[in-house]
Write a structure and sequence with these properties.
Rossmann fold; oxidoreductase; 9 strands; alpha/beta; Sirohaem_synthase_N; membrane; five-stranded parallel β-sheet; 3 domains; EC 1.3.1.76; about 45% helix; two-stranded antiparallel sheet
């Protein structure tokens, strides 16, 4: 019985995409590690970031730039996030800086102080901050000190709406970076844009079918799965508003239009005509793809072209249909 279910991997970490848009965050330190932390924070778009660090030569250049950037610089600076730089060493005896951020977060219409990040070379100070945060039940991360971390930072890649994190649970950050680079090479171009377009389609579908009951939610999910599995990543990235409107028309008829169903004007080559002809005789797979039976992740399950004589006949028929379709198209164009 146990073989039917996934094995437990006792990593000790719960991987989440933490939403901090309503929270304030305290960052102690301004060196290279703190600079990396600040970059990931502004990408997450919190309500406000407080940085406590002296204004001296130890401030990382990139961090100084982001903390002093013009708010209108947008993604090129601090991403539009408000950053308050408290230019002094953290007050370790009374934790006044921590209390300041905590009170401001609770009284400023936000969700309070979401987390504290410590990135200094003062081990004693870091330990004291960690102890105070845990006393106040505030999640804390002390850089490079796993016992003083309630959560870890991983190696992250971002492509638009796509975020991928590789974590070694504090055991091998360098290995995480190497693995992240390998994963990055395998991600198709336009993956982030494809995810954004799917998000647009989901939002539009919820406007067409706004039901909140379990049945309505399940129907929307199943329909989105059917549509998404028909399109390649590259095709999803090209879904414009007009194509999205035509795809949504399939909801009323419980059909899942493919890329070729909603973009006929773009199908004007011999190869594309062959694909359409092959689909017409049932030889091509979902989305007008090669007649290889694949699962939604692109893994080959069956290919008719490697089945001996059957594959030869199938290929011959497909080629004949494509040529006939092309001749017909050419003759109609000359009229």
């Amino acid at each position: 019985m146990s073989g039917e279910y996934p094995l437990v991997e006792p990593t000790g970490s719960l991987l989440l995409a933490w939403q901090v848009s309503r929270e304030s965050i305290l960052l102690v330190g301004a060196g290279p590690v703190a600079s990396s932390r600040l970059y990931h924070l502004v990408c997450a778009q919190p309500r406000k970031i407080y940085v406590v660090a002296p204004d001296d030569d130890n401030v990382d250049p990139e961090m100084r730039y982001r903390m002093t950037a013009d708010p209108d610089a947008g993604a090129g600076g601090n991403g539009g996030v408000e950053i308050e730089w408290i230019k002094r060493k953290y007050s370790e005896h009374d934790h006044a800086d921590l209390q300041l951020v905590l009170q401001d977060g609770q009284g400023g219409g936000g969700g309070g102080l979401g987390m504290v990040l410590v990135a200094t070379d003062d081990a004693t100070l870091s330990t004291r901050i960690c102890a105070e945060c845990r006393r106040l039940r505030i999640p804390v991360n002390v850089a490079d000190v796993p016992p003083e971390c309630d959560f870890y930072f991983g190696s992250v890649l971002r492509r638009g709406a796509l975020s991928v994190m590789v974590s070694t649970n504090g055991k091998g950050p360098r290995i995480a970076a190497r693995l992240r680079r390998r994963i990055e090479k395998s991600i198709p171009d336009g993956a982030g844009e494809a995810i954004a377009r799917v998000g647009d389609l989901r939002a539009a579908l919820r406007r067409v079918e706004p039901g909140k009951g379990n049945d309505a939610i399940a129907q929307r999910m199943q329909w989105m799965i059917r549509v998404s599995d028909q399109w390649s990543i590259e095709q999803l990235a090209r879904m414009d508003p007009d194509m999205r409107h035509r795809v949504l028309q399939g909801w009323a008829t419980d059909s899942a239009p493919s890329y070729y169903d909603v973009a006929p004007a773009r199908i004007n080559s011999l190869a594309a005509l062959g694909l359409r002809a092959g689909r017409a005789v049932g030889l091509l797979g979902p989305g007008g793809s090669c007649p290889v039976d694949r699962d939604p992740d692109g893994n080959v399950r069956r290919c008719p072209f490697v089945l001996g004589m059957t594959g030869f006949v199938t290929g011959l028929v497909t080629a004949s249909v494509a040529v006939a379709a092309w001749h017909r198209y050419s003759s109609m164009s000359r009229r």
